[in-house]
Design a protein that fits this description.
This protein folds into two domains: 59 residues; 103 residues, Immunoglobulin-like. Helix content is 34%, strand content 32%. Helix 1 packs antiparallel against helix 4. It is built from four helices and nine strands. The radius of gyration is 27 Å and the shape is elongated.
Amino acid sequence: MIRQLFLTLLLSLVCAARAAPGAHGPDGEHLDAPASTGAAANAQPIIEANTEAFELVGTLAADELSVMVDRYVTNEPVLNGTLEVEFNGIKAQGKLHADLGDYSFTDEKLLKALRQPGNHALVFTLVAGKESDLIEGTLNVAADGHAHGLGALWQARWPWVVLLVAAVLAAAAWGMRRRNIQKKN
């Protein structure tokens, strides 16, 4: 009986391994990855910073750094200003998208530098009418966190593997107890 349970467990693990996610294309991209909406979009690097007068929230996407600025006390969007960012000697001017309420930074040199993994200290200069402010924040860009090979199998399937092992052990204990009861009678 223990041999049968062991073979069942082994067969289940082999089936789980064959069904594991993580197929890669010719350039190493994940073929089974979801489109960049929902949770994947939330995985983009984000910067949040504020001063006494203003606050900003920015998101680093593939083609831009999008930054929304509002007044700290009222949350009123700042749509009548100019916003500049500086990072490692690179300065870039944001383009205001009044319809979306954000400032878009598309400078390739800036985006290339920001895509590198690490903590990036950014300094934003906001000029809105007669007001101006320096807003400092940190953009944390993580390295590729995808696991590959057996790591991907374990990462994606570990709850099911643990549940399967627990079920097999419970079945083995139940079978042994049943056999012991039958022997006593």
